[in-house]
From TrEMBL, chain A:
Example GO BP: amino acid transport
Native organism taxonomy: Bacteria, Bacillati, Actinomycetota, Actinomycetes, Micromonosporales
Keyword annotations: Amino-acid transport, ATP-binding, Cell membrane, Membrane, Nucleotide-binding, Translocase, Transport
Stored SUPFAM superfamilies: ACT-like (SSF55021), P-loop containing nucleoside triphosphate hydrolases (SSF52540)
Source organism of this protein record: Actinoplanes siamensis
PROSITE patterns: ABC_TRANSPORTER_1, ABC_TRANSPORTER_2
Protein name: Methionine import ATP-binding protein MetN
Automatic annotation (TrEMBL), chain B:
UniProt superkingdom: Bacteria
Keywords tagged on the record: Cell membrane, Membrane, Transmembrane, Transmembrane helix, Transport
ABC transmembrane type-1 domain segment(s): 14-208
Membrane topology listed for this record: Multi-pass membrane protein
UniProt-annotated location(s): Cell membrane
GO BP of this protein: D-methionine transmembrane transport
Name of the protein in question: Metal ABC transporter permease
């Protein structure tokens, strides 16, 4: 398939087709002082064209998890399938070939300092055995794709962090992979540069149908581009699902992380409720409607309306005068308008 | 001894030193690179982990490094005779020079290769690069400026060793300086030797620095 053919493939998230399927993954590091379980039984399925984020603090095991996907780390147990290939059983040439189909970008970019921007991208093509004659044109295409055509002759040391990561992305896409693994790709970048890299990733996801599995400790990354997210803690997934699902899940840690609600959880003489809406409902004037219909002096204690990757979502903490019983009708109304309502007090 | 007499003898002595240092450097480059690369490959977590082989290499390198050159030279005389058929003269001096310098350079190679960030190697591995590609196009190429700086130091060390070799029958500038400058109190001979050596070391260092700088894009 040519690059053009690849580029016009339509992005479609199909829940039925998993591009990455991990099950029962386990990895323990042994040292003289004892052993550390880095990944402790993780199951993970990433659909075609999906952007999946694994969020967690450092030491949660997310980096090990990601490195197990392309066998940079050998898992102790469990299986990893990418596309049609079961990777855990592969070694040597067959593993190397399978790795061509899995691009990876790195926190500290991991570029060859001795090669120019074009040379770094060409390196990936050399590795995959692209004939010399085709390399030049392909390098130009890839640099165009990430917007670095003008910097082709520069060395990495002469680039800004964002530009370096763009080279990393171009290099990762050289072999036309189905999947891109992102290892804290924006963690070394400032907020504006992070934003531009995330925008590029989202754009590639849409234009090329590229499936992205990323790990990060930054909630903004999840907010900005992930359709699905998992929270990793002590080597396990504490919680996972699509962002839309999580927002509607009562007591979801990820939901409150995505949308931290300010304001007191209790208020004398009032019923405090957390209201979550997503999709088209997020922009509907439901609070105004609520106030008008029930003639109630509703107060907004905290909240926001935001775009999460592709879905619009809103979350508010409201205070309604009276007891929960007094407000049964109002709460019913909110639910009827597609809102997830949780009574805080 | 007149200056013209000094120069008459200095010419051949310099050529002998250049020959010894040149040939020894060449073999040292090959041997040191080989052992240095093998050392890095076989270490724990390396591309070809083999801890026993790694430990053995480390032992050999340390052994070579811990014996003072003068003692090394005279202690391997039987080996030298086996290789070049004689234990005196410039060719005989080349053997201990190589034996002494290879472990020295191997350590330098190891250090230079360790300077290449691990995530660059991981990135190449993730792309599906094989070991040969990683060694040739990533490790050695990325470490090249450091390798050249290290090789410059090695050539200069070999030059120093060669003067020592000269004092015990190895020929070259060392022999000239000892025979004429020291034993016959010929100040001019000593001065000339020192000057030639200073200029030679300067030149080597300048070329080495220039190349290292040209190749480094860090």
């Amino acid at each position: 398939m040519g690059w053009i053919g690849f580029a016009i493939r339509i992005t479609k998230v199909d829940q039925g087709v998993y591009v990455i399927e991990i099950s029962g993954l386990r990895k323990t590091y042994r040292s003289r002082t004892g052993s550390v379980v880095a990944v402790d039984g993780v199951d993970l399925s990433v659909g075609e064209g999906e952007v999946y984020g694994v969020l967690g603090r450092s030491g949660a095991g997310k980096s090990t998890l990601l490195r197990c996907v392309n066998m940079l780390e050998r898992p102790d147990a469990g299986t990893v399938r990418v596309g049609d290939v079961e990777l855990t059983g592969l070694t040597g040439k067959r593993l190397r070939t399978a790795r061509h189909g899995i691009g990876m970008i790195h926190q500290h970019f991991a570029l060859l300092s001795s090669r120019t921007v074009a040379g770094n991208v060409a390196f990936a093509l050399e590795v995959t055995g692209t004939p010399r004659a085709e390399r030049k044109a392909r390098v130009a295409e890839l640099l165009e794709l990430v917007g670095l055509t003008e910097r082709a002759g520069a060395y990495p040391a002469q680039l800004s962090g964002g530009q370096k990561q763009r080279v990393g992305i171009a290099r990762a896409l050289a072999a036309r992979p189905q999947v891109l693994l992102s290892d804290e790709a924006t963690s070394a970048l400032d907020p504006e540069t992070t934003e531009s890299i995330l925008r590029l990733l989202l754009d590639l996801n849409r234009r090329l149908g590229l499936t992205i599995l990323l790990i990060t400790h930054e909630m903004t990354v999840v907010k900005r581009i992930c359709r699905s997210v998992a929270l990793m803690r002590d080597g396990r997934f504490a919680e996972s699902g699509t962002v839309a699902e999580l927002l509607r899940r009562p007591g979801s840690e990820l939901a409150s992380g995505l949308f931290p609600l300010g304001g007191p959880a209790g208020l004398d003489g009032a019923t405090v409720v957390d209201v979550t809406v997503s999709g088209a409902d997020a922009d509907a004037p439901i609070i105004a409607e609520l106030a008008r219909r029930f003639d109630t002096d509703v107060r907004i204690l905290g909240g926001a309306v935001e775009t999460l990757a592709t879905t619009r979502a809103g979350r508010w903490r409201l205070a309604l005068p009276g007891t929960p019983q007094d407000n049964t009708g109002a709460l019913e109304f909110l639910r009827s308008r597609g809102a997830e309502v949780e009574v805080a007090s | 001894m007149t200056w013209s007499e000094v120069f008459e003898l200095l010419g051949p002595a310099s050529r002998e030193t250049a020959w010894m240092v040149g040939v020894a450097s060449l073999f040292t480059a090959v041997g040191g690179l080989l052992i240095g690369v093998l050392f890095v490959l076989t270490e724990r977590g390396g591309l070809l982990p083999a801890p026993p082989l790694n430990a053995l290499l480390g032992l050999i390198v340390n052994l070579g490094r811990s014996i003072p050159f003068l003692i090394l030279m005279v202690s391997i005389t039987p080996f030298t005779r086996l290789v070049v058929g004689t234990s005196i003269g410039t060719d005989a001096a080349i053997v201990p020079l190589i034996v002494g310098a290879v472990p020295f350079f191997a350590r330098i190679v190891e250090t230079a290769l360790h300077e290449v960030p691990g995530d660059v190697v991981a990135a190449a591995t993730a792309m599906g690069a094989g070991r040969g590609t990683i060694v040739g196009k990533v490790l050695l190429r990325e470490a090249l400026p450091g390798l050249i700086s290290g090789f410059t130091i090695t050539i200069i060390a070999i030059t120093g060793y060669s003067a020592m070799a000269g004092s015990v029958g190895g020929g070259g500038l060392g022999a000239f300086a000892i025979d004429y400058g020291y034993n016959r109190f010929e100040g001019k001979a000593m001065t000339a030797t020192v000057l030639v050596l200073v200029v030679f070391v300067q030149l080597v260092q300048m070329v080495g620095d220039f190349l290292a700088r040209r190749l480094s894009h860090r």
